Amino acid sequence: MKTDTTKETASEQSGAASAPAELKYSGLGVSAGIAIGPAHVVERGLIDVPDYCVTDVEAELERFDGAVGRSIKQVENLRIKASELTEAAAEELTYLLEAHRQMLAGSRLVRGVEDRIRAEKLNAEAAVQAELSQIAHAFSGMEDSYLAGKIQDVREVSARLVRNLTKAEYQAFSGLTPGSIIVAEEITPADTALMDPAIVGGFASALGGAEGHTTIMARSLGLPAVLGVPSLVHEVRPGDMIALDGVKGTVVVNPSAKTIARFERRREALARRQRQLERLRTVPAMTRDEVRISLQCNMELPMELALARQAGAEGVGLMRSEFLYMNRDTLPSENEQYVAFKDIVEGMDGHPVTVRTLDIGSDKLAYSLGEHISPSANPALGLRAIRLSLKVRKLLETQLAAMLRASAHGKLRILLPMINTSSEIKRVNEAMDKVVRRLARKRAAMSDPLPELGVMIETPGAALAADSLAKSCDYFSIGTNDLTMYTLAADRGDEQVAHLYDPLHPAVLRLIKYATEAGKKGGIPVNICGEMAGDPRFTALLLGLGLRDLSMAAPNLPRVKQRILGLDMTDAKKRTAQIMEQSDSGVIATLLDDFNALE
Ligand code: PEP
Ligand code: MG
């Protein structure tokens, strides 16, 4: 993805000599919408640093060394991103990042921290804080303004070190001016979970890929977002006005009156279109030749319930339960989870709600699970999702109990993430039997029959073994986000390989087709809940592949419905058959786009 930065002075645009310069950035627009508001720049680090005495000095030095290593890697990543900028901006940022790298590789700061850990037995965070204060004091007496300015670099590096030491995962976005636009180097899914769309206008960050969980959450919450703007966080000041376009991927700092008017016109046009689509709320999703399609919503946070209802969703096709574990230090109790699931089941007025067991790991991390998750060289291939639940049985049993109890209040289905083998399903069934017996002894109410148990098809292994998996579960839910990532070995959250992450690759399409047909042959329902389901570009193809149940972020539902209303299933099937004969994703894309343009 090409990123570039151009600067123009506001006086050139408006004639106002004192107006600040308008800065334009372009990145990856990942969540649609327009936001105009003041910048809230996230600087993590030297706030509330814990201060204590360590007993094992060697272990503390090792912990500090680990934080230095992680910091160097992050700076390296930013340098790669910076090289994509226009020449002048790239040069400036590369220079700055090189200074940071050198400081991390060995400097007074790093040596000073190590000395303090050894001599004063200080914990590493406090040692960084103390060393920074001393360096800042020495710098403040300098006459040379260039050298005095270098303290900013020391501060930034110190903040990075502390962030990596404390693994600071969450930010309270409370007390912001409504409409604020969050600007950060990186925004995690846990950060996004704390963003209330009534307060946060949108966000922009340096890192992150188009199908990462942060992006998915932004779309679900209807928060406009732009990723891949590395210099923004260094150049914007807190409170600077920002205009952001999450469709085009543009960010303008200090927008002129003319630019604001242009963004507002676009915002109004998008809102008009959304209002038109909202009229479809109660219209059944049916193709022109009367094939009925069921459209449900994906949810990551309970607050999306209102959006799902507003969009006219016929159920929740995927409730990610990770939100219960994020931004906290302790694990959620059975009762807390029961209340959360019950509220959603009741809120959907008899429509089915599919709740997925914990899918933590890879890019979705949670503090509360700290002791259960060790660092992994390859987190996406490591102890994540059902693997963690099966290893730490208490996690699984607590969730199953909460879901079983919530099932007494409406139609609840249980979904298992990252399943590859029937034996994993068997072990979950055993855990479920045990939990059912325990709840029955306590006379807890549960649905009768018990909730259906389905599995995500989101690895190539699961897709190719779908015929045998179909014998062990009640339904399939195809997760194209991970399926694409694992099939093409391209990280869904890494913007550097975003061009390789292609759900139209014939291998991905063949796996979807095979799993859909295997589910049907096995007599179980198959639905799809990956991001493909929420993009009208893919609707004809998914229907042509035999899918009739689609689940997506609420804001996408009306667009997909509109596409279905204009489609002819016979034509969609014919075009899909043609597409499935191709071996080149470029040809596939053209065949699909031509069909979409015609229909
Ligand atoms: C998927 O992988 O497609 C999916 C829906 O699950 P998640 O995005 O939560 O990994
Ligand atoms: Mg997944």
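^ magnesium ion complex. The chain is about 45% helix and 15% strand. Residues 1-16 have pLDDT under 50 and may be disordered.
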